[in-house]
Structures are given as C-alpha cells and as structure tokens.
Amino acid sequence: MEQSDNWKTKTLIIGAIVGALGGLLAGYILIQRSEATASKPALSAGDGVKVGLGVLDVLRVISDIGIKN
Question: Domain boundaries in the chain?
C-alpha cells in the first residue's frame, strides 16, 4: 500500500516545488521590469483576469498530459 501511494507524494512535492519556482521567477521578472521602468508594479483588474486565465490554461494543459487515449 505504501509503495502504491509513493508516486502520489512525489507528484505533489514536485508540483509544489515547480509552482514555487514559477512564482519566484514571475516575481523576479516583475521586479526587473519595474526597475527598468523606474515605477512600482501595478496590477489592474484586467491584468488579474489575464493572469488567472493564463494559470487556468496552464493547469488544463498539465491535466491533458496525464490523459492517454
């Protein structure tokens, strides 16, 4: 039983690490862009919707990877 659930734990840990690294990279890019323009980052409602839809699209693509016909 333990070995059959081992892949689930590994998948969750890898997903958490990839998500954290992706968030750090996004923050780094936002900081670099803000420093280049000498302005504080601002997120409008429209930008928030774009980011949310982008995240949902990435999650959809990831979920499609695991589906085999």
Answer: 2-65
